[in-house]
Task: structure prediction
Amino acid sequence: MLSVFKKYITEKAAISENEWEIIASVCIVKKLRKQQFLLQQGEFWRYNIFVIEGCLRRYSIDDKGIEHVIQFSTENWWAGDRQSLLNETPSKYNIDAIENSVVVMIRKEDFDMLTTTLPVFNELINRILQGGFNASQERINTIISMTAEQKYLNFLTSRPGLANRVPRHMIASYLGITPETLSRIKKQIMRK
Amino acid sequence: MLSVFKKYITEKAAISENEWEIIASVCIVKKLRKQQFLLQQGEFWRYNIFVIEGCLRRYSIDDKGIEHVIQFSTENWWAGDRQSLLNETPSKYNIDAIENSVVVMIRKEDFDMLTTTLPVFNELINRILQGGFNASQERINTIISMTAEQKYLNFLTSRPGLANRVPRHMIASYLGITPETLSRIKKQIMRK
DNA sequence: CGATTCTTTGAAAACAGTCAATCTGTGTGG
DNA sequence: CCACACAGATTGACTGTTTTCAAAGAATCG
Result:
């Protein structure tokens, strides 16, 4: 299963076989059943996670008990709570598996070891971090500038196939609208 | 003026005097008049920018010609378009000065040189990047989970003082609501 | 001081949210 | 393998919020 991760890494950076061995030595492959929690709010998060297969979601729960999905992580994406990891604070988020999934977990200490001893790896992680940051800014732009319908259409194109894998109410949550509104929007789009 | 930047850097990382000299040698201090553009959409962005004094805003313009503020950068903040910088693509954003401002500009090549030759600097930038990323995720959370009023109150506390420096219609834009709505929300809050 | 831009206010319309009921599909235990 | 239960999705009626458009009232800048 690790081969998926190796493929990802070696496609994105010039990692030698030796270097890969070092990386592989700190990788923990973990299977997750649908619905299984990886993190619950209040806990401390200490890993970096790479999704090999399946789909995870990270979400917060507000005072009214409503869930708000911040992120979906599918194959070849990273997941985790960087905030808790970086500041060593209790997490505000929950992470669970939407599908049966396989992930690679790397402990914070191990991960830091990798970035300090392997410059190529460090550079790779940097690029990924920047890419994620950019995507995040992009999302802010779409959320504040688009109507509900535009946001949904944008979701369909920016995350192709995801709409068929993820329950609709989670998509609605991700877009910041209610399931009912999403349902009506879909009907409206159909008519066109 | 560079001293502000030096203070910021040395407070956050163990940078020696020598190392600082190297950093300072690639810094370009630039004054900006209120309203002055730093970047307009379609252009390529090639700098990292640190705000010494004043306030910048980054915003997009949609098909209807409406501006959407993605970010305000005040003293001791970073600014720029990381997306254009990283991918070497034309920028989707505009950046201009809301107040007369002073910024430090570092060219991409110089910045990369700093991060590769000065490990401490690299690590500092990494931490800042992660912090920015986290803040960005945090903002997504507030936008999708809060009502207009909550978002405004949250803005008041998370960016203290800013509301008095920045025109209201820009704050409205930042929050993803119309100026009229913001005006009414303020009145409503006053009454409490 | 005049002109322009920003902010506020009002009224109507569009939009999204809430609550409740019904429909659908999936998975489980008998 | 079927029937049932249950969670998720849709629909309708209603409510509440936000936008839109237009106009008047501040504030700011040259």
